[in-house]
Design goal:
Layout (H helix, E strand, L loop, with lengths): L4 H5 L6 H10 L5 H20 L44 E4 L6 E4 L8 H14 L1 E4 L9 H8 L21 E6 L5 H7 L21 E8 L7 E5 H6 L3 H7 L3 E5 L1 H9 L10 E5 L1 E3 L6 E3 L6 E4 L4 H17 L4 E4 L6 E5 L3 E5 L8 E7 L14 H6 L1
Parallel strand pairs: 2-3
Antiparallel strand pairs: 1-2, 3-13, 4-15, 5-13, 5-15, 6-12, 6-14, 7-8, 7-11, 9-10
């Protein structure tokens, strides 16, 4: 079997030609193994020429990884009974600044990895309220990989992504690794056939238990560009007219992972777990805040149960357009070294931005704890809500 990226990178450059020769000489017969080798060598050569600071976080694709379907688990919502004055999360000396009135905060003066249990509970609630929070000057990327996972595992069962690259031995870490330069696959696939890279989605919403408090931390980013844009799905719901809100309650939509799996297969990538579809309410309620949010996204929501195709397509197209054009409930998060961005995947959608062409690397890791099965609470007229 080909050596892992991690193994190769730990070797000194002087032994590299021999290593590569050994790998090439042992070309296995299986197509999957050839693909793994090709990717390994690609990232190895890129890592050398680009002076990777976090080689332990380089993605690998192990075609031998096969996982059985996810089983249900009981999720504990840590934000539910947290202290809403946030004494452990935001002690004296820390600073929390809103990015916009409706969504997003930026926090300095707090070290996430040092939070006690009460602080982590408050983190879950704070993020549920602000939807996305950028924590600056964090040490998460510098911790051993298992310690980073142990931190994130507090918030729910780790999701293992069916198709993405991950560091060898750590399939729970979802790696984003891109070179923004014309001629690379990102530019080819996104911009050759599209006008923009805008693609709002809620991560892996096709799972039965979708992610909740979710973490993304950066290793390398372009000097400018590569921001992540988040949209507040609670505010997107609140802006709808009362008759439409009322009509959406009780409807469910199909979320599908099949297209993502097929895309990976077409590129000879990995499919670690067979794809699934799940039906989720179009309006879901957050277990800690009680807020109602739209829960449809362009990335994975395919149809509305019970509606005919034209009706379903038209209503989803309206909702997708409504969510993505509402800049008054969106925030643009700028990355900087040692930033950890935490969002609540139940009440937000987000989009990457492919706007840099300098060839600079954008390299991040995501920790994706799963949460409860999405549920909804009944529609309440505004006048009744005021009385309550
Ligand atoms: Fe995403």
């Amino acid at each position: 079997m080909a050596p892992s990226v991690q193994q190769i990178l730990e070797d000194t450059p002087s032994v590299l030609p021999e290593k590569i020769a050994a790998v090439v000489k042992e070309v296995p017969k299986l197509k999957e193994e050839r693909q793994t080798q090709r990717q390994t060598l690609f990232y190895y050569s890129k890592a050398l020429t680009n002076n990777h600071q976090y080689p332990q976080y380089l993605p690998t694709w192990n075609h031998g990884q096969k996982y059985s379907p996810l089983q249900p688990f009981i999720h504990t919502e840590h934000g539910k009974n947290a202290d809403a004055t946030f004494p452990n999360l935001l002690p004296q000396g820390s600073k929390a600044k809103k990015l916009t009135p409706t969504i997003g905060s930026e926090v300095t003066g707090v070290q996430l990895s040092k939070l006690d249990a009460a602080g982590k509970d408050q983190l879950a609630l704070f993020v549920a309220q602000r939807k996305v929070v950028a924590f600056r000057d964090q040490d998460l990327a510098d911790l051993p990989l298992q310690e980073a996972l142990d931190f994130g595992g507090y918030f729910g069962r780790h999701h293992i992504h069916p198709t993405s690259g991950s560091p060898e031995g750590f399939p729970e870490l979802h790696i984003v690794h891109r070179y923004g330069a014309p001629g690379t696959s990102e530019f080819d696939s996104f911009l050759a056939g599209r006008n923009s890279s805008t693609s709002f989605h809620s991560d892996v919403s096709y799972e039965a238990q979708t992610p909740g408090t979710t973490f993304l931390y950066i290793f390398d980013s372009p000097e400018e560009g590569g921001d992540t844009v988040f949209a507040n799905q609670v505010e997107a719901y609140n802006r709808l007219s009362e008759p439409l809100k009322e009509r959406l309650h009780g409807l469910k939509a199909v979320h599908s992972g099949f297209e993502q799996a097929q895309y990976s297969r077409d590129k000879e990538g990995v499919v670690r777990r067979e794809p699934v579809k799940n039906e989720h309410p179009i309006v879901r309620t957050h277990p800690a805040t009680g807020e109602k949010a739209l829960f449809v996204n362009q990335g994975f929501t395919r149809s509305i149960i019970g509606l005919k195709k034209e009706e379903s397509d038209a209503l989803l197209a309206f909702l997708f357009n409504h969510i993505s054009r509402g800049i008054d409930w969106q925030a643009r998060v700028r990355w900087a070294p040692k930033t950890v961005v935490v969002w609540d995947n139940r009440v937000t959608v987000h989009s990457a931005t492919l706007d840099w062409s300098s060839g600079e690397r954008r390299h991040l890791a995501r920790i994706t704890p799963q949460a409860e099965i999405p549920f909804e609470t009944p529609y309440v007229k505004p006048e009744e809500e005021l009385k309550a």
